Amino acid sequence: MDVFLKRSFSMKALSIIAIAAIILTPPALAQDNPMVGGAEMFADRTIVENAVNSEDLTTLVAAVQQAGLVDTLSGEGPFTVFAPTDEAFAALPNGTLDALMMDDDADQLASILTYHIVPRRLDVDDLRDGMTVSTLQGSSLEIENDGTVTVGGARIVSDAIPTSNGVIYAVDSVIIPGTGPDDTDDPGPSLE
Q1: How crowded is residue 168: how many other Cβ atoms within 10 Å of its Cβ?
Q2: Percent of the chain with pLDDT over 70
Q3: DSSP state of 184
């Protein structure tokens, strides 16, 4: 009987410790926020507030500032941003990014960046194969989803990053208006 009481007491003590550990775990540890470029992304922050913390989106942040789009992407939204990574910008032809970042090319830069922005929230389940979405730039992008999701030919390389004013998806290339295989809309500016 003495062994039974000890075992019963031990089980009760373990149960109390387990319950206390669950209750006392800080909420921040219980959350599973997505990470992009070594930075945790938070659903209660705007697209801009999240992007500025990511080491993988520094070129995009600089381009958004140069193009005068910070207020737009800090606004109410909702927006879906297909965010080219730093690697995506680095893959542009030599001199292209430098030319776009010049003050006299702000309109062309804004056109390219707004081609990556959809003025509504598109969650993962919304990204259906063959669908076309209108961009803030005015042209359309085609979504392909055959297990790998691409938008305008750029592959999505992150999970959905929910924000307070929309959602971000990191993509592996810069999408240039008028260069997609099925782009029949006004091509906008060219890189030439």
Answers
A1: 26
A2: 71
A3: -
Please tell me the predicted confidence (pLDDT) of residue 15.
Answer: 59
Show me where the domains of the chain are located: 1-31, 33-171
Question: Per the omega criterion (within 30 degrees of 0), is the bond before 78 cis?
Answer: yes
Residue 119's pLDDT band, with cuts at 50, 70 and 90, is very high
For residues 66 and 109, the answer to whether their CB atoms sit within 8 Å is yes
- Shortest CA distance to 87 belongs to which of 157, 150, 152? 157
**167, 177 contact by CB (below 8 A):** no
Could you tell me which of 125, 117, 123 has the C-alpha nearest to residue 79? 117
Average pLDDT over residues 34-42: 62
Which pLDDT value is given to residue 132? Answer: 96
Instruction: Quote the pLDDT of residue 32.
Output: 75
Cβ-based neighbour number of residue 12 at 10 Å:
10
- The residues with which 131 forms a beta bridge, in sequence order, are none
CB 98 within 8 A of CB 77: no
Question: 3-class DSSP state for residue 56?
Answer: coil
Residue whose structure tokens are 């929309």:
166
H/E element, 15? helix 2-24
Structure tokens at 149: 């999701």
Whether 183 has a pLDDT exceeding 70, the answer reads no
- Looking at domain 33-171, its CATH architecture is Roll (2.30)
Q: For the beta carbon of residue 179, count every other beta carbon within 10 angstroms.
A: 14
